[in-house]
Design a protein that fits this description.
This protein is an alpha+beta fold and about 240 residues long. It is about 40% helix and about 20% strand. It has seven helices and eight strands; from the N terminus they run αααβββββαβββααα.
Length: about 240
Amino acid sequence: MSTGRKLVSDVRSMHRILSTDALITDRVILSEIKVNGLLLVKRETNLRKLWATDTIFTTIPCLELTCVPISECCDYVDPCKVARTKEKIPRIAEGNYQYLIQGVYSINAMGGRGKKLKEITINRYTNLLKLPYTKKEEYYWIVNDYLYISNPSVKSVRITALFEDDVPNDILYPECDCGNPASLDDICKNPLDKDVPIPGYLEKQVLELTSQKLLMTYFRLKTDISNEGLDEQAPNVAKTTK
């Protein structure tokens, strides 16, 4: 896995025009790299690839939960309670079949990873509640960017998923016993110096897509601006020649 700075440098080195154009900043190029990387990674996960790797997934070590009525996230009328994250979670990428989540785990009293929870939709879960007998499983689902857990007694969870944007430091490094200790270098690191979650075998395709997109977008824009300038000057030129 390469850093953003290296990938940006590779894109610039592909074309002399890109390497010298000041309009296309490093951050613009990095943003385009991430968009194309996410596109290709989704394609691979739809083909059931990359699920066992830790290259593309990010772990949020601790999400605190609060107890809420199940009616908060659906139209099901029942006195039962569920657990919900106190804050909205960063947007998770979606594939053809599901959210790109490698796992959601309850956190035990010692702060370690506990039981792995099963993914379910809220509609399927409410249908289970209507049955006379249900298995004692613990499920999770997402509604309106909140993560819900079927067991209301769960106080916190750990999630490993492919997020569409960089996870903020206050979420990635929570101030609790089960969180990852953050150094000043981690918190202050330049986005260009962070690893970009793209598997090595996809990097070449991502760089080529990024280079083509930048050339098409920015240099077409320059051409349009130049043409407009000529059109505005044309009447003046004509008057001068008369």
